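Below: protein 1.
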Amino acid sequence: MIVGPRDESDRFTYWPVRIDRGGEVLAPGKPQDSVQYIDGRDLAEWTIRMAENGETGIYNATGPATPIGIGEMLDGIKTALKSNAKFTWADEKFLTNQKVQAWSEMPVWAGAEDGVTRTNISRALSKGLTFRSLDETARDTLAWFKSRPQDRQAHMKAGITPEREAEVLAAWKKQA
């Protein structure tokens, strides 16, 4: 997933926006469920370097360099934004039963068994693919989103709505 400022899809953007709002946050699956993403600025810089160096070929260019789980990503965003968010982890089976969609309503997360978040990037790393910090990507993405017009901010294109999140959290607590 290509993320960062100017990503109009809101797939990653949902998380900094939601975590910045604080309070109880519905978190998908297990904290160790794998995620992969790359800041579009890092991808662009690497692509330009590759072209300037006359490099060609097929590469999987995502990140980060060291695999992480969604829990580490969400905690990193929370730390970067100095948020008071508290994550409530709901397992994949429960989310499926509640008809909460991985990827669209729970962006970046593809579920525990989805291979798309375990792509081997070693070839791109060997050609100099580098990554800025999650802190920087999260802060810059949130700042960019907050610079958008109010009507755009009010209508995110990805992520679960606040009302639906509250319903799902209430259902989770009821069955626990």
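Below: protein 2.
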Amino acid sequence: MFLARIIGSRRLRIRTIVAVVMALLLYSSPAPAEETQEELKTVDADGFSQITGDNALIARDAAISDALRKAVEQAVGTFISAESVVENYQILSDNVYTKTQGYVKNYKVIGETQTQGLFKATVRATVAVGSIQHDLDALGLLMAKVEKPRVLFIVSEDIPGHPSDTLRRLGDNGDVSMPAAESAMKEIFLNKGFNVVDVESSADKVDVRPSAKSSGLTNDKAKRLGKALDAEIVVRVKAVARQGGKTPGSEVSAYLADISADAIRVDDARVMASVLSRGTARNISDVSGGIDAISKASGDAAEKLMDQIIAKWSKGNIIVIKLTGIAGYTDIVDIINMLKKEVRGTKAVYQRRFAGDEATLEVEANVPAKAIADALARHSKRPAKILKVTQNAIEAEFQVR
């Protein structure tokens, strides 16, 4: 009996050791890497090279390299205007065009000819446009394309024992402290090249009641507030922190923060981006713990917002044109055709409204609104008087004939 107990005890210990070892192995094993879906685009491009002597093979290789570079140049042209490409050619040449191999994932030669000492190669290349967009953004070219918009942050923040609110700060003449989410997100946007509106220095431009709350800010109110403070984008943020469980035998508690945020175009109150983020922290103080958790969530939210905003800009901006003094439908057709033919970077023009002598058009383009306004003012058939130009909207008037 005694021997049986010893054997049983040893078996139990062995099973326990095996279980612990297996658990440690599972815990320490690296998780499989998540597969990321890289944005790719197929591009056809021609490359050329002089044939020196009789060595056509060397010329062929050079022509293929030239074609791959031009495939990358085409991809760059989908993100920034031709004028910006010319102005920043040396920067692009040094930082983008020299990385052809990194951007081209694969290619196939679909045609080649030799004519009068010149070798021509046509390739069909798969280009990583997402990587190109990231590098253009890092160089500040995408930000320059949209003329560095001004961003206004409106934040409602609930931390145990330390609530804060941007509109309350305006109403109380800055006596309320800046929300932690506002401070963290501003820093990240500034580092990315955005211009950020200083609410305290702009408070005299708006009349806000002390009882006002940012959490009740509708799209239309955000639009009006953004216009009053000369902002092109309003970022609305709601941040809530709460205490989690305490560490056994310690005064340290866990703190959790949830953030919802969206970015609104001031011109037309369109939502450009919307995100949800979460952050955690550990601290002995409710206030410090809540601030730490919100700051972490804010950093993640800011990065996600910028990614969505920049992705929209890189694919083309929507510019709204409001026209008055339209003589008839043929005027609208002439304007649409002119924009498509004369404004480089115009992808599409949509007629949204036509009534009486008024019309509304939406232009999807890779150029600033100013370039479109200039084209309307120079329209050979009927020049327009430009009344107002903002980042995303134009108001123009045609004189009655």
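The two ends are 115 Å apart (CA to CA).
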